[in-house]
Amino acid sequence: MTEWNQYRGDERKTARLEVDASLEGLHRKPVERWTADLRGPVACPPVVDRDGVYVATTEGTVTALDFQGRRRWVYETDASTHLTPAVDGYVYCCLEDALVALEAETGDPVWTREATELYTTPPTLAGNLLLVGDAEGITAIHAETGEAIWTNDLEAPPVGAIAVDDERVYVAVQDESVSAMDLDSGEDVWRVPADGVVVGGPTLADDRAYVADESGTVLALDAETGQTWFTYKIDGAFTLAPTVLEGADTLFVAADDDTLHVTDTTFGNRKLRGLLFSKPGLPLDDTPATDPIVVGDTVLVGDQSGGLYGVDTDGPDFRWHLPLEAGIASTPAPAFEVDSFDNEPSSVRLFIGDEVGRLRCLAWDADQ
Fold first, then answer.
1. pLDDT of residue 321
2. Interatomic CA distance for residues 231 and 30, integer angstroms
């Protein structure tokens, strides 16, 4: 099983999983494989490694399950967990009062780092480095030992998730700015203003950092200099981070006008055409509740009514709509399974947490 081991899948926050083209089942609705009851409502996305899926609840539990939905272990704490864990040998959880590393196989605590301020970002894993933000700024931590390597006082809390490339760390800040710093030292590289508080954090693609904010502006920033390449504005507010099809000149971003907006990444223009005028994007039944994630050539997005949509990346246009029983609590986590006998693709799984405390596994099979 491939990994989706942190918020939006990887350290660049691309929200994209490459899938073999032979899995044409993605063009159709997935089928439900199983559901598992958790010990509390889900408020953050699950994460996946090669051994299973991990999900945190607002009741302070972290649960590990195998790919058949069987519970492997449960870690219980008195502190609520609203931030997405990260997993790579250890499961890293930002609690209200501490950052905890758990053995992924057993759930046993390995190290704990007490917090002096509340954590405001999910942990981002980049090699042996773990990056977290709190009300005082950002700290880079050695993932194996929990020891701090460097800190950067941003003078305002970071918001959303931290993104990382080979050279720099990118973060949105509560004071309506976006900051980049050196990955090795934590020293500031650039800092630029946004039009409002950024939602979700930066997305890295095509040597740019893309952000969306509560004022209804998308910014495409040069990753090296912070220079603005283009802006895209709407009358409402964006609710989640943008997702970019790298090399395909397409950006998807969710907004509170019940629309999945679609733009190009050359000038930030609307990409969909109507009979007479361009269209801002694809209308949903309710306000988007999840980041748009890309699995193969299909964009997946959920809304607050519990609807899950499959969108063709080439159109873009709707392929299917699947209503779910309970509201989708957060962005799903996909995983790609390869048959162990012939090394051919066998299925894609999608793990979705809901508001009533269940984890649902949907699947597309190669022969579906």
1. 96
2. 35
The number of domains in the chain is: 1
Average pLDDT for the chain: 92
Domain with residue 188: its CATH number is 2.130.10.10
Of 351, 354, 329, 344, whose CA–CA distance to 48 is shortest?
A: 351
With 0-12 / 13-18 / 19 or more C-beta atoms within 10 angstroms meaning exposed / middle / buried, residue 165 is middle
- Greatest CA separation for the chain: 61
Examine residue 110 and state whether it is found in any structural domain, yes or no.
Answer: yes
Look at residue 5 and tell me if it is in a domain.
Answer: no
CB 309 within 8 A of CB 301: yes
**Amino acid code (one letter) for 161:** A
pLDDT at res. 17? 94
What is the pLDDT at residue 81?
Answer: 82
What is the average per-residue pLDDT within 96-110? 94
Query: d(Cα 94, Cα 90) in Å, to the nearest integer?
Result: 13
DSSP per-residue letters across 6-45? STTSSTT---EE---TT-GGGGS--EEEEEEE-SS---S-
Euclidean distance between CA atoms 306 and 366, whole angstroms: 26
Query: What is the model's pLDDT at position 367?
Result: 57
Asked if residue 267 is part of any domain, the answer here is yes
Euclidean distance between CA atoms 24 and 33, whole angstroms: 18
The CA dihedral of 121, 337, 65, 62, to the nearest 10 degrees, is: 0
Average pLDDT in the 118-138 region?
A: 95
Q: How far apart are CA 245 and CA 250, in angstroms?
A: 5
Residue 1: its pLDDT value, please? 57
What is the span of the domain harbouring residue 318? 16-365
Q: Judge whether 351 lies within some domain.
A: yes
